Every structure is written in C-alpha cells, then in structure tokens.
Recover the amino acids of this structure.
C-alpha cells in the first residue's frame, strides 16, 4: 500500500505539472494583458506599459518560453506571480481558496452521503411510489444546469423574503460584516443555505442513480440472503452487507462527480457573489490576467487529483480484494 | 429485418416515445415558430422595453426592445445546432480513435490512449474558457470543434476495449484472410458492431453538448453577440434581472431544461432497449 501510494503521488505531481503548464501556456498565448493599459485617456506611453508588463512577467513582447521559465521558477518557490495590476496572486489565492474549499467540502459531504442514502432507500423500495418519485426527481434535476438552478433559487428566495416581509434567506455574499459573535455565525450559515443546495442537488441526483442500480444488483445476491438466514436483522444485513458492497462503484465515481462539482462551483460562486476561485477564474479571463488563470488551473488540477486519490483510498477501504492484491 | 425488430423494441419504451415527441415538438417550435411570430429576432421595438408577455409581444421584450419570442427561438436554433454537431463529431471521433487503437494495438494504441488520458485529466471547461478570447465573434464553428474535442475520451476507451474482443471474431479474421484492407474491416465490420453503443452515446452527447455550450456562453466564453444562444439569453436574463423581469429568464431556461430532459429520456430508453446489460 505504501509504495502504491508513493507511486500514485509521484504520477499525480507530474500530471498536475503538465496540466498547469499547459494552462499557463494557453493563457499566456491567448490572453492579452496589454489590453488593460491601452485605450486609456490620457494614453499611457508604450515604454511605460512595456516596463510595467515586464515587471509583472506579462509582457507579450517577451518570448513565451522565457515567460514560462520565469513563471515556473516562481511557482517552484511558492510564488505565483503578479496579477495584471501588480497585486500578489498568492495573497488573492489565500483569501479565495478557503472560500471555495468550504463550499466544495460541504457540497461533497452532503451530496455524496445524501445521494447514497436516497439511492439505497429507493432500491430497497423498488417500484413503490417513493422509488418512482425519487427516480423522476433525480432525472429532472440532472437536466437542470447549475446556473438555472441557482437563479431559480434566488427567485424563490426573494419571493419568500417578500412574502415574509424581512430577509429570511440570504442570497448574496458570504456573510454580513456588521454582525459579530453568534449572530455572525448564524448569518454565515444562512448565507450557506442556497449555495449548498445549488451545489448538492445535482450530486445527490447523480449518486442516487448509481447507488440505486448498484444496490439492486447486490440485493438479489446470495450473501445478503445468507446474512439474513444467519439471524441478522434485515436492517443490519442491508447496511453492513448490501450497502457496503454496493458503495464500491459509487466510490469509483467520486473523482468524476467532484470534477463536475468544481465546474458547478464556478457558477454557484458567481451567482451568489462568493469571492472564491471559480469567480476569480471568470474575472481573470475577462481581465486578461494570465498568472491568475494559471493559479486557478493549478488549484483545479490539484483538487481533481486529490479527489482521484481519495476515491482510490475509499475503494481500497471498502473492498478487501483491492488491499490484498 | 433485424432493424425492424430493434426499432420495435425501441419504440416499445415509453421514455423513447415521450422523448421523441418532446424533441420533435421543440424542434418544430424552434424552426417553425418564427414563421408565426409578428417580429423577427433582429427587430427592435422602441415603444416597448422590458414589457411583460402580452398580446403584442407573446413572451415580452428585452431591455433593448427585442421580441423575446423571436430571440428565444433563434437562440434555441443555435443551441440545438451546436448540440447536434458536437455530438456527431465527438461520437465519430470516439469511434475512430477507439476502433483504430483497439484494432491495431501496439504502438498506435499506446500513443492514442496516452493522448486520450491526457485530455481526460485537463479541465475542459477551463481550457475552452481560456482559449475562447482567441475566437473571433461569430466563429461558432470553432467553438463546436473545441467542445467536441473535449467530449469523446470516455467513449473512445469503451470503444477500444470492445474492439479488442471484436478483433478476434471469426468474421473479422475471415475478412482479414481474404485480404481486405484493415481500414475497410474497421469501417465495415468493427464499427457497425458497435452501433448500439454509439447511438446511445451520440444521444447522450447531444444533451451534454447543449449544457456545455450554454454553460460557457453564460460567461461569454462561447457564443457571442450578435449571435444568440440559450446560454447568452439565460445570462442576460439571469441575476437581478430575473427577479424583476422573470420572463427574460424563465422562457430560455425552461426551454433549455425541457430540451435536455427530452433528449435524456430518449437516451435512457435507448440504453434500456439496446444495451440491457448496462447498469448506469
């Protein structure tokens, strides 16, 4: 297991390096930071623009590979460079990573556990009304893109707030800086409600479909019947024997589901006004901010690969055969 | 004869029938609807800005006085067109790469599969978004190519592993001993035997591509003005606009969800009918 993990880690690092490099090269060659400085009144002299851009390692007159070299030597030392207006990418990233990770963590935990629970429940009640209702609901949810869902949630929240007469559910930003103490905490939780729903709902639908199918395969098998014949209660047999076996395929889908959620988080952050990495990606592309785009790409690649390793570990923990071989 | 049996089995699935009727109705709405509207999508009515749905403007008007009915249908045409084109290219590419890699094996297989894996690791949304400023506005065909080139990898892996077993079948061996060139064997004997997988995949790709297109267009990284798609319309009508002027958001968003839903229904039914062994 140890050598396997080590080898896995090494190949992950290489993949992250390739993905981030490619993102940097693409961003550096297709974005144009100079556009931020041209067309101003009064016009800025070309020499000044050149020297400023060179200072930030954004000058398109420097050869691409040279810029790439400077960027890599910075990143290796933990310096992600400057934004187009001279700010530190590291500082921005420090503020934003936490915001995004909080959303992603809550989304993953709630989405996967609720999804698995709903799917398992539907499988146990196969062809009853509750199973059919869950099936139809998850099918519909999977057809609703995150940006439609998030906008619908804000419309719903404003309607509700209007009906109640005060702000019952918050739908912009992360917290209210005017509050403190317990009020602040409650306010933060309130701000989390809608983004969490918009991230989780798709995940729940996705996992529940997989989990239901896998659970149905397992339920008919001999070992579940044997477990019950040995005198285990139906509940224990289902949870300890059937659910655990049926969890394995869902665990292999974990990395894939996380990737889709990462994209979904971009929309969630943008629509609910959370200043996270996803919002930054959109803004930095619109501002031709090469170094920031590369930093977000690196973050995304690390996230996806960590999810991949976690998914392997989950499978190993659930499936004894994997651990033995 | 066989095709008749398959067709009957497919049409016996209620999902497929409902999905087909739905998609055909939406297609008719998108392409025939504009003939009945009183306004074209380029017309601006300077007497009605953001007017709610009514007898004159059936689905209301936008902030610059465009007729929402005409603009939405125009956007839907573009989204449908992009969806179908992307699905066609991506499934074709998946079949081609997978079948060649599986059939020839060896070095070609290694190279093709390495490329496939690399593309799988790259975050496609991010890459397309980064490349998008390079595309000139109006060049939506390049956008189609970009979307397609990031959506074929998983299928091509499946195609490859199925080709590995097809390669050893008697009819393929017989064809090879008769001296038929390899590319002909691939197109006449290997790919047709994967058709049920490819048909299902193409259907699912249509809805995936439509969602991908609208998602990128939502941020302005895909279809761009003066072109409209469902994504740009949802983006324009979203945010705080959606709260005060809901018709700007609800019509394009509703049509998008219906479109994806009906296509997924067809895909789901096709999978049940053609590929009963699959679980997901």
């Amino acid at each position: 297991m140890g050598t396997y993990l080590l080898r896995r880690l090494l190949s992950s690092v290489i993949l992250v390096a390739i993905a981030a490099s490619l993102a940097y090269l693409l961003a550096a060659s297709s974005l144009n930071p100079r556009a931020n400085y041209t067309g101003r009144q009064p016009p800025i002299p070309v020499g000044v623009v050149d020297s400023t851009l060179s200072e930030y390692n954004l000058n398109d007159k420097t050869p691409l590979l040279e810029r790439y070299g400077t960027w890599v030597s910075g990143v290796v030392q933990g310096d992600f460079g400057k934004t187009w207006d001279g700010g530190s990418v590291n500082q921005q990233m420090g503020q934003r990573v936490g915001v995004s990770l909080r959303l992603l963590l809550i989304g993953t935990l709630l989405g996967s556990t609720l999804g698995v629970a709903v799917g398992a429940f539907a499988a146990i009640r196969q062809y009853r009304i509750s199973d059919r209702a869950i099936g139809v609901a998850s099918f519909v949810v999977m057809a609703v893109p995150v940006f439609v869902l998030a906008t619908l949630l804000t419309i719903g929240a404003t309607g509700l707030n209007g009906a109640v007469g005060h702000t019952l559910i918050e739908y912009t930003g992360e917290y209210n800086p005017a509050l403190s103490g317990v009020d602040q905490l409650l306010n933060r939780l309130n701000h989390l409600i809608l983004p969490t729903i918009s991230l989780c709902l798709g995940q729940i639908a996705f996992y529940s479909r997989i989990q239901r199918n896998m659970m149905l395969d397992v339920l008919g098998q001999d070992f579940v019947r044997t477990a019950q014949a040995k005198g285990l209660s139906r509940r224990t047999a289902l949870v300890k024997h059937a659910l655990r076996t049926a969890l394995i395929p869902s665990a292999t889908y974990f990395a894939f589901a996380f990737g889709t959620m990462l994209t979904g988080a971009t929309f969630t952050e943008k629509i609910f006004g959370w200043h996270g990495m996803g919002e930054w990606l959109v803004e930095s592309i619109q501002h031709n901010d090469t170094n920031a785009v590369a930093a977000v790409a690196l973050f995304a690649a690390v996230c996806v690969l960590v999810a991949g390793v976690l998914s392997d570990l989950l499978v190993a923990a659930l499936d004894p055969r994997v651990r033995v071989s | 004869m066989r095709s008749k049996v398959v067709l009957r089995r497919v049409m016996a699935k209620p999902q497929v029938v409902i999905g087909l009727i739905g998609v055909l109705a939406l297609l008719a709405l998108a392409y025939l609807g504009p003939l009945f509207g009183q306004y074209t999508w380029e017309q601006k009515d300077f007497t009605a800005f953001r007017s709610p749905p009514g007898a004159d403007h059936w689905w209301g008007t936008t902030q610059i006085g465009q007729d929402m009915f005409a603009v939405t249908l125009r956007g839907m045409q573009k989204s449908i067109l992009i969806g179908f084109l992307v699905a066609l290219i991506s499934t074709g590419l998946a079949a081609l790469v997978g079948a060649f890699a599986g059939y020839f094996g060896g070095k070609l297989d290694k190279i093709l599969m390495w490329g496939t894996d690399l593309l799988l690791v790259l975050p496609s949304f991010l890459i397309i978004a980064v490349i998008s400023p390079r595309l000139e506005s109006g060049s939506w065909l390049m956008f189609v190519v970009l979307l397609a080139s990031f959506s074929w990898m998983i299928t091509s892996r499946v195609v490859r592993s199925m080709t590995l077993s097809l390669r050893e079948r008697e009819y393929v061996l017989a064809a090879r001993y008769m001296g038929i060139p390899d590319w002909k064997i691939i197109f006449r004997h290997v790919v047709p035997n994967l058709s049920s997988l490819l048909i299902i995949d193409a259907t699912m790709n249509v809805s995936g591509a439509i969602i991908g297109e609208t998602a990128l267009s939502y941020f302005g990284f895909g279809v761009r003005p003066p072109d409209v798609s469902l994504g740009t319309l949802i983006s324009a009508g979203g945010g705080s606009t959606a709260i005060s002027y809901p018709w700007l958001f609800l019509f394009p968003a509703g049509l998008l969800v219906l479109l994806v839903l009906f296509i997924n229904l067809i895909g789901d039914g096709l999978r049940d009918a053609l590929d009963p062994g699959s679980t997901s």
DSSP finds 13 helices and no strands in chain B. The CA atoms of residues 41 and 70 of chain B lie 5 Å apart. The first helix of chain B runs from residue 2 to 11.
